[in-house]
Write a structure and sequence with these properties.
Layout lengths: L13 H14 L4 H6 L3 H15 L5 H14 L5 H11 L4 H9 L6 H15 L6 H9 L4 H24 L15 H4 L1
Helix pairs in contact: 1-3, 3-9, 4-5, 4-6, 4-7, 4-9, 7-8
Length: 187
């Protein structure tokens, strides 16, 4: 199997060094995902820019979490589900929402459930959704802007989820308490 290097600010290509220094300062540690992505500075840059762009969409913190975790769970990302669990807690997302997303159970809030269902339909359909799925999403109070914002979030998650799959990125110690395995695989 191919080895994917884990970089520090000292070992990374020059174009990634400043991003790693800034990330370590922001998090208090250097996330394993960033250590891997740093080998291709353009990947790290695009991931971080996409993350920042998604954070600045019309979605509130609970909605951001719904999009991220729905995709992370569907993609079975062993790294991102625990990381976004910790992030969701730090953003004060309701614990019941966090657990429902991790366990793939319906959300109590109908609007958040509509967001989860539509995001899941978009992922599973590879961008192809039925008119009924779209209408249910719009009936919940969302619009075409939010459809495109989900696609932005999905692009971020493809970058991280796929990187973590191929590199088998270890879950950072800060998020190990939130370790996760897909429910049907755990049984």
């Amino acid at each position: 199997m191919t080895h994917f290097p884990r970089h520090t600010a000292e070992t990374a290509p020059d174009a990634a060094k400043d991003r790693l220094v800034a990330s370590e300062k922001a998090f208090g540690f250097l996330p394993g995902l960033y250590q891997v992505m740093a080998d291709v500075p353009q990947l790290l840059e695009i991931y971080q820019r996409t993350h920042e762009a998604f954070m600045n969409t019309s979605f509130n913190t609970a909605e951001l979490t719904v999009v991220w975790q729905t995709i992370n769970v569907e993609h079975e990302c062993h790294y991102c589900v625990p990381a976004h669990t910790g992030i969701a807690h730090s953003m004060n997302v309701d614990a019941d929402v966090i657990e429902a997303l991790r366990n793939e159970t319906p959300l109590a809030d109908p609007k958040l459930e509509a967001l989860r269902s539509f995001t899941l339909a978009l992922v599973r359909g590879r961008g192809n959704v039925t008119p009924a799925e779209s209408e249910a999403f719009y009936a919940a109070g969302y619009g075409s802007r939010q459809v495109l914002e989900i696609i932005l979030g999905l692009s971020q998650k493809v970058l991280s989820n796929y990187t973590n799959h191929v590199a088998q990125t270890a879950v950072d110690p800060a998020f190990q308490a939130f370790a996760w395995e897909k429910a049907d695989k755990a049984a």
